[in-house]
Amino acid sequence: MIIRSPRRLARHSEEPVMATKSAVTVRPVTAADEPRWRELYAAYRDFYKLEPSDAVLDRVWGWLLDPAHPTSGLVASVDGVIQGIAHHRFFFSPYVGTKNVFLDDLFTDPASRGQGVGRALIGALTDLAGTEGCDIVQWETADNNHTAQALYDSLASRTTWVTYEAQATRP
C-alpha cells in the first residue's frame, strides 16, 4: 500500500518521503544521486536500444538539477539504495482545459523489480498531481513492453489514443 502524503514534493528538497511502500522511499533527485542515476538512466536507454551517449546523460542531468527547467526527477530507494528513477514535467491540455503531469521516463533496476519501486514512483506522481491541482498523470510505453504494461494496467486506464511523431524541419 502506498502511503499518501499531503506534503508537496519539492523540486530539489533534501526532505525525504513522498510515498512509501514497505521499504520503498521516493524523493526528488539530488546532486548526490548522480552516479546511481547515471547507471539507471544508461540502462533505461539501453533497454530502449538507444545509442549510449554521455552527452545525453549530461544534458538530462543538467535539466534535472536546473530549477528553471520544466523537467524534474524522482528517485526510489529500497533500504537506502536507489533502485528506480522517474522523470516528469507538467503539461497543459487545451482539449479539456487542465494542467497535468507527464511521466517521461520510468526505470527500475531489473534486480529489484517486483518490490513496488515502479508502483511507488507512480504513486508519488499521482500525489504530486493532486497537490498541484492536476487532473491526471499520463505516460507512454513501447507496445512490446509487456512487463511494464502489466504494472500500468493495474494502476491506470489504457487510452485509445495513437501517438505520432514528425521530424522537426531544421533551417
Give a concise summary.
With 171 residues, this protein is α+β, with helices and mostly antiparallel strands.
Describe this structure in words.
With 171 residues, this protein is of the alpha+beta class. Helices cover 30% and strands 25% of the residues. It contains 4 helices and 6 strands; from the N terminus they run ββααβββαβα. The chain has a 6-stranded mixed β-sheet, with helices on both faces. The longest helix is centred in the last third of the chain and has 15 residues. The N terminus is likely disordered.
List keywords for this structure.
4 helices; globular; 171 residues
Structural class: alpha+beta
Q: How would a crystallographer describe the biggest sheet?
A: 6 strands, mixed
Helix count equals 4
Helix content: 25-40%
Let me know the number of strands: 6
Low-confidence stretches: 1-17
**Helices and strands, in N-to-C order?**
EEHHEEEHEH
**Rg from Cα:** 16 Å
Strand content: 15-25%
Distance from first to last alpha carbon: 51 Å
Shape: globular
Strand order of the largest sheet: 1-2-3-4-5-6
Q: Average pLDDT, to the nearest integer?
A: 88
Give a topology summary.
Elements: E1 19-21, E2 24-28, H1 34-47, H2 54-65, E3 72-78, E4 81-93, E5 98-108, H3 117-131, E6 137-139, H4 146-155
Parallel strand pairs: 5-6
Antiparallel strand pairs: 1-2, 2-3, 3-4, 4-5
